[in-house]
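Sequence in, structure out.
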Amino acid sequence: MRAEAAGWTALAVVATFVVAVLYSAQGSAPAPSAPLPEAPAVVLPWVAEVAPSTVVAAMERGVPPSVEATADVVAAAWAPGLRLVEARRGETWEAHRALIEDATTGDARLYAIGDLLPHGSLLVAVSTAAVDVLVADMELVRLDEKGGLRSIHDFRTALEAQPLARAPELADAYVEGAAAAVQATLSEDPEVVQAAIDALIEAGEPAVELIIAEASSEAPVAAYPYRFPSGGERQGTPVVQGDVVIGVLEAVTGQTFGDVFRPDITRAERLEIAGKWRSWWGG
């Protein structure tokens, strides 16, 4: 009876967190801005899919179907789902190429300046060992060959009439709710754990900084094939709390640094993946 009561208490905490998240999202939505004037259509040159090692003339390039299929998936600037493998500079800017990998599929291909990238981004510049990418038509970020990412310019500041409201009366409840949901992932009841996972994913990007420190947690969790839905119905059976947190981070950001749900994963591999997540965040 005591375990059952604890389970219901944890579920109530998680449910309260979901309500706080939804209310906070309503209070923090920016005021609608006037529509921008429609830009003239840009016709990109076409090219058939090529091997990553093949350099193709700029006027023969186009948008591969596999890339075009991800154009509606708007990524966050701090997690564009892209990795720069190599920047190749030619004699003229038209001959510059960037070998970029889709972090979701592992598909690597060459892109020229002006090419559409996976997840709705656009390649705008190629420099030595780095490229500039416009993410979601809103923020310019720089990727380097060492895996680094930094923001160059956020164009949203020019469109916002005033700073976004953050519903300060819910800020403390949001932080406390995230902590309670993370704690609930340690429940012995799989339903409670699943509810906590759903709540953390629903909390979205603001929750990332609140939970990423637990990516290396080795506290055991109830083994069960939990769902981590985000654009698909992925399942994973975690062993430790860090596995659950990483599953949530992957669902929210679309980023991955290795499969922690692999049955034969070692402790060293698991800690290495957690370390990459903290390094990616800047910790």
